Amino acid sequence: MVGPPLDSREFLLSLSSSILPNRKTKRKVFFFHLINPSHLKSKFLTKSSTGINLSSSNPYVISPKHADFTNVNPNTYSNSNDLNLSLPVNTSPNKLIHNSNDFYEPKHRSKSMLFNSNSNCSKFKLTNNNDNINTPKSKLSKYTNKSNDFNNLSISLLNIRSINKKSFYILDLLSSHSPDFLALTETWHEDANSPSLISAAPFNYSFLELARPPTKPLSSLHSTYGGVCLFFKSSFSASRHSFKFTSFECLVTSFKASRNCFFIVVIYRPPSSLLPLFLDEFYSLVESLYSFSIPFYIAGDFNIHFNDKSNYYTLKFIDVLLLFNLSQHCTFPTIRTGNTIDFLISSSFCRLNNISADKVHFSDHYLIKSSFSLNSPIANSTCSFTKRCWSLLNKELFLDSLTSSNFDASLFGDVDDLVSSFNDLLIPILDRLVPLKSFTYRLSSRKAPWFDMECILYKRRVRKLEKVYRMTLSASSFSEWKSKLASYRSLLFSKHSSYLRKSIISASTSKHRWASLSKLLHKNTPPPPFSAQQYHDYISDKVNSIRVSNSDSSTPTFSPLSPENAFIFSPVSLPELTKIIDSMSSSTCSLDLVPTFLLKEFSSYFYPLILKLVNLSLTTSKFPTSFKSSNIVPMIKNLSLDPSAPSSYRPVSNLSFISKVLEKVVFLQLDYFLNRFSLLPPTQSGFRRSHSTETALLKIYNDALLASDMGNLSILLCLDYSSAFDTVDHSLLLELLDKSFHISGPSNSWFYSYLYNRYSTVFIENSRSLPSSVPYGVPQGSILGPLLFILYTSELPRIINSFSLQSQLYADDSYIYMSFPKSSLTSVILNLTSCLDSIISWSSSMSLKLNPSKFELIFLNKSVKNSIPLRSINISSNFKLESSPSIRSLGFIFDSSLSLVPQINSVAKSCYFHLRRIRLLLPFLDDPTLQLLVSSLVLSRMDYCNSLYYGLPDSTLFPLTKAFNCAARLVSRTPRFSHISPSLVALHWLPLRYRIIFKICTFMFKLHNGNFPIYLTELISKPQRKGLRSSSHSHFFIAQIRHSYAKSAFTYSGPFLWNSLPPHLTSSLSLAGFRKDLKTHLFYRFVAERC
Questions:
Q1: Cα→Cα distances 616→4, 579, 610, 748, Å
Q2: Which candidate, 724, 373, 653, places its Cα nearest to that of 527?
Q3: Helix or strand holding residue 176 (H, E)
Q4: Which residues contact 886 (CB under 8 A, 6 or more apart)?
Q5: Distance from C-alpha of 298 to C-alpha of 265, rounded to nearest angstrom
Q6: CA 428, 434, 439 angle in degrees (round to 5)?
Q7: Which neighbouring-strand residues pair with 883?
Q8: What DSSP element (H or E) covers 397?
Q9: Do residues 876 and 833 lie in contact, with contact meaning Cβ atoms separated by under 8 Å?
Q10: Gap between the Cα atoms of 76 and 228, Å rounded
Q11: What is the band of 510 on the pLDDT scale with cuts at 50, 70, 90?
């Protein structure tokens, strides 16, 4: 009587026990040698009362008649580690492959193998590129976890330093800890049939492997080392992808869990491989992985000391991670020597949690354990919401309903009554014409937006023709099916292309085009992992903690700046209001009852109502109560930050459109008053006309270059505030407006009404927080908020100037710098420390909190002779700030030698990244759309702060020039090695150096016409004596310099380039006309040089 199947491993253990009952240590060794495929040929093992029964249904199976265990000799085993079984004559021991339930002879052999250990019958499968691997159900499936939590998976990493004689430890590790994935490096196995790998897999695990190279390749991979393996639970559907590199071993596998797809990559880089080659190949690997548009996780031994930030190649490796927005999660020692060389890396917005390192006794590396959650929602997740279908609105009936109501806004004397009465009139009309409807959609739906009903019907017809062909197998039906299939693919291509073009062209700014591109490439930012109420509580706790820390500070005093001039609101006319509304974006908030496009479309009805509301608000000094509510949406500050941390997000307020119209009216009147009497700080460049981050950086760079040209040093300190906009004290702001800026009386009462009794609600996807009051701060995302903050911090530049230091500010970003002789270094640092003490005291009195941990300090000097070692300054008794070789401020990198090499390299890398992303959509884009996309996302980055690049050597500009040429070839669709000049001429693009000249000349035109910041205008002067030839052509004095590198200073490059322009350009009347004529002039110069 044949009993139930006996697991092969159980049989082997029982057999070893009967042979060596008193030798426990040798029993383990015997087990690992016994399962060697060269020793067994059993296809099906069963257990009976008489011993071992083996079926002989096929010639490869051992039967009771063929099996002969009489040759098993314990003494022989103990000496030679072999067990001799007599097998059938037609059995070839060299062709067996191990499975934990059976042994099978495959028809083919390959090193690209997946060993499925959860199969009742033999399911050995070779996997080539993109072959799907599906594990069939097993009789042992009752032991497997059928309800895997695919949103909470675990992955472990270990450098095992040879798996030979360590299979038992891996088997025990997988059985006890049960990780979903286990990545092993340095397995040292020779081929896919390694018994050590086979015996290490439990019955519910499979594995993929990459054997170490048999010989020493060109990249110096030593033949003794190498080999990687990935164990994973058999419940996953896996597919192996082929990647071949010379500097490291790489095993790339894609997995599918539920409806989620992701990559797991196992890497081993030997210490002897060339790091420059590795960085290039690793860059190519990551770029290829991103092309699949699915998450990926990289685990491996990189043999790069990640904790050694002074190492050149470590910094280069970190640059690659930052370029692709990758996160390296191992910040602790991963080997007993105390270094960090084993990495766990995740792609954008994919986080690894619960990371830990455990010591193991069989390796000098630590076992790194972590878990991760798949970003995609599960199949049954849904989201419900209500909205009005404005596309179904009968616009004529809507307008008739509004006009027939005979609503008279002139009857109201209170702005709240006006808003409330009109809403009571409007809501019933909307409920009747466009009622609110509930919608539910599945979060896991990934249907392409261009796949409409026409595509669905076409697909059904293609499927019908395919079924007809399958049934008839006729040539005519096959031809018809293939013809229809080709037409279907052409339809999909045209739909996709049309959708892309509309998405890109409809975006009004570069920021919106970047968001559209990310959406098209499935790179959208996932929602924060915390709830709306949690983020709301985080903001409140943070602001309250800052308020408590400043509670003991002294009360500030405000000095009047313009006591003879008072600010008074003036009523707005309908043409002025129409111009303001038409210039604003048509964005709509959920707080708006009527979308913005309808307001603008029915301007004849809505604009007079809005005019009445605005003027009534200004005359009664009352801001409408219904406009004080805001919806806060967290927006990540930087893609390189941790997306799971609430501190990585900025609370941006979404306000109703009409409230922003009212704020815009007040902003224009207040801004005119402040600029007319020069009340704003001269060095404040934030949110001011003719000012920008580039003009502020240009001033700092110009002063540092001229100081270096004179043999002096420059010191630059960057300050940072914590939640600056959210901690503004309303009472202090109102007092400041009254005493310093003479905004008193009714005007001050209006700002009081605007600031107090505001409410906000946080929205994150389908969750929302409870509405709560906002006792502090100005709304981020509002129109008046930035201007009010600039006024609130207007005293800061005066404090800095009182210490004979210079400053540049952009909203809440503050920069202090000074040029001085090297001999005065000690006194300058003491002066700077005193200035910081005054700033800290003033900030506390204004309820602002400085964040010293984010301060940055750098010494700037072009001359090598005057270079100084890195120094530090004491900010407080318990904090010392060290100087850095380079710092990033306002999107620009300053290096201590003013070479701008880090800045050029950073911009070039960013441009290459965006070019590769655009290339993914290249087949679907026509030429105008492609040029628009490249201009917005690539050329805009090259042109940012390029006025600082004038006079740089060709070797410094080479990376940026190369990236610019790549962009031109991509847009013109020319081969990679074709000459660049014909492409530039065909596109009417100016070369990189001419684009720099174009920017500087544009700045000089603004300066010449008085539309430029005062801190740059006062640096350049015109000749004063009459009769000079230069005065007739509006020439400027050129700064005198000693060294050639000082030609990059704006005081030299600006006048020099402006004076070289022909008179018809310098006498242009408008900026648009000047830019057009200047581009034509420079383009003809470029063509003439090439001819």
A1: 90, 19, 10, 16
A2: 373
A3: helix 167-177
A4: 858, 893, 894, 895, 896, 902
A5: 5
A6: 120
A7: 857
A8: helix 395-404
A9: no
A10: 34
A11: low
- Helix, strand, coil content of the chain in percent (nearest 5): 45, 15, 40
Per-residue DSSP letter, 246:
S
Q: CA–CA separation, 119 vs 205, rounded Å? A: 10
Give the model confidence (pLDDT) of 1008-1052 as tens digits: 999 999 999 999 987 765 554 444 456 899 989 999 999 999 999
- Cα separation, 141 vs 966, whole angstroms: 55
pTM check: above 0.90: no
Strands 813-820 and 806-810: antiparallel
The predicted-structure confidence for 940-974, as pLDDT tens digits, reads as follows 999 999 999 999 999 999 999 999 999 999 999 99
Q: How far apart are CA 883 and CA 718, in angstroms?
A: 11
Tokens representing 759 are: 């409410």
Task: Mark 781-814 as b/e (b = at least 16 C-beta within 10 Å).
Answer: bbbbbbbbbbbbbbbbbebbeebebbbbbbbbbb
Residue 249: which of 276, 205, 285 has the closest Cα?
285
Q: What tokens were used for 548?
A: 């408590």
The residue count of the chain comes to 1091
What residue spans of 973-1062 are helical by DSSP H? 980-987, 992-1008, 1014-1017, 1029-1032, 1050-1059
Three-state secondary structure call for residue 857: strand
**Backbone torsions φ then ψ of 125, nearest 5 degrees:** -140, 130
- Tell me the C-alpha distance between 187 and 199, whole Å: 14
Q: How far is CA 344 from CA 296, 440, 643, 818, in A?
A: 11, 38, 17, 43
Residue located via tokens 């001359």: 863
Share of the chain above pLDDT 70, in %: 78
377 exposed, middle or buried (CB, 10 Å; 0-12, 13-18, 19+)? buried
- Structure tokens belonging to residue 1003: 């700045």
Cα–Cα dist 251/242, whole Å: 8
Cβ-contact 728, 734 below 8 angstroms: no
Nearest Cα residue to 630 out of 464, 778, 479, 453? 778
Beta partners for 296? 263
Q: At CB < 8 A and 24+ separation, what contacts does 977-986 make?
A: 981/1090, 984/1086, 985/1087, 985/1090
